[in-house]
Amino acid sequence: MKNASSLERRLRSNITGDVLFDRFSRGRYATDASFYQILPLGVVVPRTMDEALRALAIAKDEGRIVTPRGGGTSQCGQTVNEGLVVDFSKHLNRLLSLDVENRTCVVEPGIVLDDLNRQLRKHGLWFPVDVSTASRATIGGMAGNNSCGGRSLRYGTMRDNTLSMDAALADGTLLHFGEVPRDLARVNSPQSGLELFRDMLDLGEREAAEVAERFPKVQRRVGGYNLDALVPRNAPNNLAHLLVGSEGTLAFTTQVELKLWPVIRNKVLGVCHFGSFYEAMDAAQHLVKLRPIAVELVDRTMIALGRDIAMFKPVIEATVRGDPDALLIVEFAEEDQADNLQKLKQLSELMADLGFGWNHPQRKWGGVVDVVEPARQTAIADFRTSGLNVMMSMKQEGKPVSFVEDCAVPLPHLADYTERLNAIFARHGTRGTMYAHASEGCLHVRPVLNLKLEKDAKAMRAIAEEAFEMVREYKGSHSGEHGDGLVRSEFHEAMFGARIVADFREVKQRFDPENLLNPGKIVDPPRMDDRSLFRYRPDYRVGDLKTALDWSAYPGAGGGFQGAVEMCNNNGACRKLEGGVMCPSYRATRNEKDVTRGRANTLRLAISGQLGPDALASDEMMETLKLCVSCKACRHECPTGVDMAKMKIEVLAARAATHGLSLRDRLVGYLPRYVELASRFAPLANWRNSSPLLRALFEKFAGISAKRALPAFRRDVFRPDAETYGASDGREVVLFADTFNRAYERENLDAALRVLVEAGYRVHIPRPADRARPLCCGRTFLSAGLVDQARSELNRLVTTYAPFAARGVPIIGLEPSCLLTLRDELLSLRSDNEAKSISAHALLFEEFLVREAEAGRLELPLGAMPGKALIHGHCHQKSFGAFKPVEKALRLIPELSVETIESSCCGMAGAFGYGADTYEASMEMAELSLLPAVRRADASALIVADGTSCRHQIKDGTSRAALHVARVLAMSLDSAQVKH
What we know:
Blueprint: H1 5-14, E1 18-20, H2 23-28, E2 42-45, H3 49-61, E3 66-69, E4 84-87, E5 95-99, E6 104-107, H4 113-121, E7 125-126, H5 139-145, H6 152-155, E8 162-168, E9 174-177, E10 179-180, H7 191-206, H8 208-214, E11 237-238, H9 240-243, E12 252-259, E13 261-262, E14 268-274, H10 277-287, E15 294-299, H11 300-307, H12 313-319, E16 326-332, H13 337-353, E17 366-371, H14 374-385, H15 387-391, E18 399-400, H16 414-427, E19 432-437, E20 442-449, H17 454-473, H18 485-488, H19 492-496, H20 498-511, H21 561-565, H22 584-589, H23 596-607, H24 619-625, H25 633-637, H26 644-659, H27 663-669, H28 671-680, H29 682-685, H30 687-690, H31 692-702, E21 724-725, E22 732-736, H32 739-743, H33 746-758, E23 762-764, H34 779-783, H35 787-806, E24 811-813, H36 816-819, H37 825-829, H38 833-841, E25 842-844, H39 845-854, E26 867-872, H40 875-879, H41 884-890, E27 896-900, H42 919-928, H43 930-936, E28 942-945, H44 948-958, E29 962-963, H45 965-979
Helix pairs in contact: 1-3, 7-20, 10-16, 16-17, 33-45, 35-38, 39-41
């Protein structure tokens, strides 16, 4: 790093964006979605395109290589290198211009595909290169890889939809690359640009015959440079198409002009079931004759793994019939829905003509499940596009590895190709997963290997050589969608021949004579199996770790903690900007440090010793996790199940053991232990809120923001005068009076108790078995890393509630973070049958009521409440699939209109929003969608939020009071009594 000091100093002097040269930041940019890892010299996150070009100029002057980067989701190692990484995704993401009439737009390279399409949709347009990573893939990265997407059968590839590109050469020369006549007449470009264009067109003319002979005749060919864009038969030639697929090796893209299409108005899916994988692959060539816009493969492995993932299980159960070996999802999108329905009919007829039937023997077993409902189509699309992450969710050392993933072969050969490929896998002692683009003969094929092992690295090499040889035999392409990078560039000579590879080298030399732009990709690459470039190098080791929680579901050190951390495959689903909750801190900051992927990478580097000794408990690690609000969204929404909230507890425990506790940690963690005492002296305890001096002192010494009023202690805390309420013959329930509602908002517990009693239940509020302080779930202790104290609290709770759970009594709670601790962290601290029984019987208040209502057992005299209720869901409710019951419970109230606020985390997140160092981030999260939605709401509307912290954030940010569902139901009971 001494040699980098001049580069870093100059960048800091000339750029206002982030300049990151610390080891933790560099480590976060050392990987992409491939199996490679190369530590860069530094990272720049420019605020403007001028700053990006300034960084390029400084790096060139310092003799440093430069790698442009978007979402960092490349699967072949395109975005990792040892020089300077320039991240376009945070700031350089604007839609610069839009021509609706001519269906074109111009964008900056850092714009995310989904974000672009959200802006286009209001004009009835979209950009249809719909890659599975659309929620985080940038247009610049897609252009660099010549991305294709699932519907390229109709819309073509990135190249087919790129009209022009503006880019800078390595020497800073700015050029416009677009359509030109071969004589370059009237082309507006500097002389050096005209000379470059002339040289490229001359090369195309010289090599036209060789290109025609050696380039595969399949649409899904994205390997090498697009020399076919330069040949005379394509005149006028579009020089932007030479940059498309060049992986940042030729020029530095500054803007891209795109061809747009009308949005799809109507569509249907036919889910074709097959008892034989071979027969499914053989059928693909026939199914495309019906002119669908996509035919996507889902294999047996993906179905089985999907059934174990909470977010995908419902759609699989609703769609998959029997036990298929493969599904082909056939999509039709004609303008008239009647035409689509006719296509579905023809699809069923074609399947029958091909000899498939539901009652046939396995090889010819199958048929079509029609999917017309838009909601189920969306759910299927989400599952299909999550194929990579679903496959990577295997909780074992071996994972499906991408290296022969994108081979494309002509459809008539697809069945034989896949059968022979499986035989290759078997010869090398493994098996493969297959999914995706059957309509293009481009399946995502991944053999399961453990690249930590030398023998598996050698197997990967052998499989690659044999597979690519077979692809050449079928006159296919070894690179059909995700580009070349470090994985496939080495094999270009075998695919294209020595002469074409020499042409590639000539192009690179002419554009970038000093080899400064992302070297080692396409031209002069290293060996694909050079283990010194792997994420898990030969010296990769994770030493013994003493962990506080149970990680036994995973392999590796720390009782499985290593395996849990390594589940992150860097595919970046956590970088999505809308939909769901994950990852709220990233949505606010757009920093790689603050996304689940960045944190997981940092943890992996820390536990493997790559960030120095004691990195796990270091200040830098705490900075990495500072904005993690423990929302648990990643637990549910990350298809590989990376549970950063749980991992953060481990880090906090390590930190507490090494460095002790701060005053704020003690105040937060030990709240359940002193809240009773504080309630007796409530006026004194609340003095801090009314005193500017005390607020300032609390900020200085306890790190609690002076801008926040703390929840007010009250003397009339919830202290039930009995242990049982309600009818003696009613069905039994236990009401868990959590610390927050008990001490601060007893109205919620009073309301819940009233609702349950009036519904005829016998409600138990048992006192602790030890007759000491009230019960607690240990949540606050976990948030401070005090795992032993949390275990102690949970032990008391288990002892008290175990007799009830043993006889099947539901345990009902109001505060999601507390009640759901019994379904989550409890089982990471105790694995005995009593703990499991309590976890199994733990239900949120509205979950219980909806379950009873759906079973026909709920008798609750609710009165009409004309008006609207807007609901904000607590993150943990969403993570555990427990939010829908909130909506359903409110819909039990006659005449109440219920609307959900589409929001991520409220930003308060327990004590997070009270921190002096996290207050601003807390408000940024809230302002993304929640607070604006509440402010827009009519003054008469009810705002509903079950989370204590959510209600406080809404109150602080809008001065609107939010209510727990229990209180709204109690209001409905009041309404019925008034009417009566």
